[in-house]
Hints:
Blueprint: E1 9-10, H1 16-22, E2 54-59, H2 68-74, H3 77-80, E3 84-90, H4 93-102, E4 107-108, H5 115-118, E5 126-135, E6 138-142, H6 149-152, E7 156-159, H7 165-176, E8 185-188, H8 192-201, E9 206-210, H9 214-219, E10 223-227, E11 235-244, H10 245-250, H11 252-271, H12 273-284, H13 288-299, H14 312-320, H15 339-346, H16 349-353
Parallel strand pairs: 1-3, 2-3, 2-4, 7-8
Antiparallel strand pairs: 5-11, 6-9, 6-10
Helix pairs in contact: 2-11, 11-12, 11-15, 12-13
Amino acid sequence: MSSTNRLLSLAMVASVALGACSAAATPSPAVTTAPTAAVSQTADGTLPKPEQTKVKLGTPIGEASQFAIVLADQLGIYKKYGIEIAITKFNAGGDAVQALLSGAVDAGSGIGSEFALTSQLTDSPGVTTAVYKSRVFDGIFCQKDIKTAADLKGKQVAVSTLGGTAHASVLLALKGLKMLESDVVVVPVGNNSTRIAAMKAGSVACAPVGMDQGKAMTDLGLNLLIDLSTDKTLQYPAVGLGFLVDYAKKNPNTVLVLTAALLEAQTIMINDLKTTAAEWAKFAQVDLAKATTDIQAVQGQVNPSLNWDDSSFGFTQLVFSKVSPSAMMADPAKAGDHSYLKKLVDIGFNKKIGAPTN
Length: 358
């Protein structure tokens, strides 16, 4: 039985901002990024033996675009490379970050990209090894009577947590609508499904929702105010895998194998619609037709190489500084470690599974 069936729903601290700030009264010394995984002479894509064979991973996994991390479990990819994974489902990315920073889980996925910035200022710095999505693909959906920027002014807009990905989508939308941040009231309510429920109940006026759910939103009578998926100029990294730097130092091969498993699952997700849709249908408990539509919608959204531009974390820094000004003290270049993805290319893993090498 897949360990995904043992997913737990934990109630933890609501905002990563609290964890990032409370541990950071005085900035700690500059972060030393985790070293490259152990050198291997192989060129046929063979992965090294992981130091830690049982790994706990936390993720909100609320959207189809985040599915690769769980798909790797359902398809037995972790097990194939010597890792027994235990995945814990959280209500929001901020909760998963808190679990990672506290040591309750070993790795995080689908978590806010701000964690690798703000954690630099704490005693438990974190690092990103893979970015599963590098652009914003949300639309801002609203109650049917909100059709213009003028209608939106003064209204409540739901996000997951302040300073998180959904908050970033709102800030980008305001920019696109030529509005000020003070023109709306941002309210943290929870993950994607919770935001949709809040709109249906009428407790908020609008919320960012993935464009893969666009038809479902219009079927509910909600109005699309602005489609952010058409803006390809602004990168906003979404963390596919994140670790504490200390953990990565102690377990470089484990981190490499986990990164490889995610890359393999992401490659399957992009290239094998039939297999991915069938697995998503089981996980999301939807029929196969709906699952196929969901996966088709995100195949062009997700990042095939899992790589990123360091400057993309600069926008994350600006977003999170809205709730934690100290975030501006962090170094965006230290938010991620490219060495693991480079190592996979060097040993021939990307070529072996048909993934991009850049």
